[in-house]
């Protein structure tokens, strides 16, 4: 119900600006390669899509320029686009990816935390599953018909930790490479590891709660700048996202505000 109310409020806000976000229109995903001149180009991990879409109209008003956002996997499609040389003003990725990009000279050294997003477990199927402890999570994964996660997504460091610490490598039904939905018979179930913001927005999944704390790898969504000529717009957007306008939408998505800033040289 939170996301339903949020989406309706977002639509009202966006209508006042004369345009709907791509997800509301059912439009094709935007690509920065196709962004018109004069726009503020943003790469953003899918984990922050709902809160970001909710405040884009106000961000546009704050900057005074249109914003084009390309969403995707932080360590997959988005990182690949940056490595290929796609220009951008701001990227909302994760510290691990940003460190790699900084070492390669693709981003400026300043980093600005926006939010933390716990990795949670989604359930597809009608089973009642306990994942509240490491032992319970291990049993649930071993008995699942399918376990989904993205090998380049923001949740992957936590999934990797779960597999290693629970000695699960090669012992569960790994569907990370599946291209089609895994069929489930009565009593069978599928588990999905994703940032909680993505699970809450997916009507096909039930949120079973966060991965146990001792298996969590903190997921920080961090803004960096791409070194374009429009640094003023980039800085204005980042300042806006560290401000209060996005707070209620982060909370609705199960995320927490984080405004720590610093230099890449100081670590994540």
Write the layout of secondary structure elements.
Blueprint: H1 2-15, H2 22-25, E1 40-45, H3 49-63, E2 67-72, H4 74-83, E3 90-93, H5 95-103, E4 110-116, E5 119-125, H6 134-143, E6 146-148, H7 156-165, E7 189-195, H8 196-200, E8 206-210, E9 220-225, H9 231-241, H10 247-252, E10 256-257, E11 261-263
Parallel strand pairs: 1-2, 1-3, 6-7
Antiparallel strand pairs: 3-9, 4-9, 4-10, 4-11, 5-7, 5-8
Short précis:
This protein has ten helices and eleven strands. By secondary structure, it is an alpha/beta fold.
Main sheet: strands, sense, barrel: 7 strands, mixed
- What's the overall average pLDDT, rounded? 88
Q: Return residue spans where pLDDT drops below 50 for at least 5 consecutive residues.
A: 1-27
> Architecture of the largest domain, CATH level 2?
3-Layer(aba) Sandwich
How many strand segments?
11
Q: Just give the CATH class of the largest domain.
A: Alpha Beta
Shape: elongated
Percentage of helical residues? 25-40%
Q: Beta-strand percentage?
A: 15-25%
- Rounded to an integer in angstroms, the radius of gyration calculated over CA atoms is 19 Å
């Amino acid at each position: 119900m939170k996301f339903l109310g949020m989406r309706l409020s977002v639509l009202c806000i966006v209508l006042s600006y004369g345009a709907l976000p791509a997800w509301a229109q059912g439009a094709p995903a935007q690509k920065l390669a196709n962004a018109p001149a004069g726009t503020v180009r943003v790469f953003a991990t899918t984990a922050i899509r709902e809160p970001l879409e909710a405040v884009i109209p106000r961000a546009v008003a704050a900057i005074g320029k249109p914003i084009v956002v390309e969403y995707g996997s932080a360590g997959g499609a988005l990182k690949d686009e940056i490595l290929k040389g796609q220009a951008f003003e701001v990227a909302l990725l994760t510290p691990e990816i940003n460190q790699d990009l900084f070492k390669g000279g693709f981003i400026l050294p300043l980093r600005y935390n926006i939010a933390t997003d716990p990795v949670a477990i989604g359930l597809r199927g009608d089973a009642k599953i306990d994942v509240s402890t490491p032992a319970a999570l291990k049993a649930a994964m071993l008995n699942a018909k399918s376990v989904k996660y993205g090998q380049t997504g923001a949740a992957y460091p936590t999934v990797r930790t779960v597999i290693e610490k629970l000695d699960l490598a090669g012992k569960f039904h790994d569907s990370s490479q599946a291209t089609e939905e895994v069929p489930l018979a009565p009593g069978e179930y599928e588990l999905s590891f994703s940032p909680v913001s993505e699970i809450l927005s997916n009507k096909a999944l039930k949120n079973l709660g966060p991965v146990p704390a001792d298996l969590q790898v903190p997921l920080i969504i961090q803004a960096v700048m791409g070194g374009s000529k429009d640094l003023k717009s980039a800085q204005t957007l980042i300042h806006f996202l560290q401000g209060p306008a996005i707070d209620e939408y982060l909370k609705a998505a199960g995320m927490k505000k984080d405004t720590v800033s610093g230099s890449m040289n100081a670590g994540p």
